[in-house]
Amino acid sequence: MVTQTWDPTIYQRDAGFVAALGAPLLAVLAPQPHERILDLGCGDGALTVQLAASGAAVVGVDSSPTQIAAATKRGLDARVIDGHALSFENEFDAVFSNAALHWMLEPTRVIAAVERALKPGGRFVGEMGGVGNVESVVSAYSAELADRGIAVGPFNPWYFPSADEYAAHLAQAGFVVNAIGLFARPTPLPGDVGDWLRLMTQSFLNAIPESGQASLVAQVRDRIRPQILREDGVWELDYVRLRFTATRR
Ligand code: BEZ
């Protein structure tokens, strides 16, 4: 079963770079002061405040109560709502999403909900992990759990589609796909990959009892070290992004 919880302080420390790397997506969105914008999977609101600074009326949603509490502290209109269960209708000029859609494992439900939330002509601008994203980590968990007689599938919390697959889902839901593409973005981590693994891969870790989780992290770290530890001592993860813009008909 997929399980993940967030501590906003640790998230800020070990994954604060996620919002920084998402900033260029704001330029793609080009928010306007008169617009009403939904930030889907807003997390602690680090990018949402930048959206709001454009003068647009912004609502942030996220399934994590702890992250929404952190976003609310920033003075944002932030609500605990799972992306599969959005109930907005014809309300938003744009839906924006950075580094969140890959945590939502039923993309057709999410895309249909986004389509309903948008006004006709509204735009959906997103960036998420694409096919091959953090493949080093996924392969290492697959191998380590297989060694323990466990199939990784039910514990993998991520959906990393190809451009063709995601474009087909968007089109099927009635969107015009204006642009969609994959690009590699090798991402240096602020510290040891062990911190990132403990923060981001709880679902894989929860495949085994808590007593074994520290050694599972150590073994995954050992496996991926030759691929992702640079000579200068920086851990650099093999991120692959899928970025798109689409318009509701
Ligand atoms: C990502 O942004 O691609 C990502 C974040 C956490 C875990 C896996 C992927």
Topology readout:
Blueprint: H1 8-15, H2 17-29, E1 36-40, H3 48-53, E2 57-62, H4 65-73, E3 77-80, E4 92-98, H5 107-117, E5 118-129, H6 135-147, H7 163-172, E6 175-188, H8 193-200, H9 202-205, H10 213-228, E7 236-248
Parallel strand pairs: 1-2, 1-4, 2-3, 4-5
Antiparallel strand pairs: 5-7, 6-7
Helix pairs in contact: 6-10
The N- to C-terminal Cα distance equals 36 Å
Report the average pLDDT across residues. 96
- Which strand order do you get reading across the main beta sheet? 3-2-1-4-5-7-6
Largest sheet features: 7 strands, mixed
Share of helix, binned: 25-40%
Q: What are the segments in which pLDDT stays under 50 over at least 5 consecutive residues? A: none
CATH topology of the domain at 8-134 and 158-188 and 238-248: Rossmann fold
CATH C-level class of the domain at 8-134 and 158-188 and 238-248? Alpha Beta
What's the number of extended β-strand segments?
7
Structural class: alpha/beta
Unique bound compounds: benzoic acid
The CATH superfamily label of the domain at 8-134 and 158-188 and 238-248 reads Vaccinia Virus protein VP39
CATH architecture of the domain at 8-134 and 158-188 and 238-248: 3-Layer(aba) Sandwich
What count of helical segments does DSSP give? Answer: 10
Order of helices and strands: HHEHEHEEHEHHEHHHE
- Strand percent estimate: 15-25%
Q: Return Rg in Å.
A: 18 Å
Coarse shape: globular
Provide an overview of this structure:
By secondary structure, the protein is an alpha/beta fold. The chain has a domain at 8-134 and 158-188 and 238-248: Rossmann fold (3-Layer(aba) Sandwich), CATH 3.40.50.150. Helices cover 39% and strands 24% of the residues. It has helices spanning 8-15, 17-29, 48-53, 65-73, 107-117, 135-147, 163-172, 193-200, 202-205, 213-228, and strands at residues 36-40, 57-62, 77-80, 92-98, 118-129, 175-188, 236-248. The chain has a 7-stranded mixed beta sheet, sandwiched between helices. α5 links the parallel β4 and β5. α6 (135-147) crosses α10 (213-228). The radius of gyration is 18 Å and the shape is globular. The chain starts with 7 loop residues before the first helix and ends with a strand. The mean pLDDT is 96.
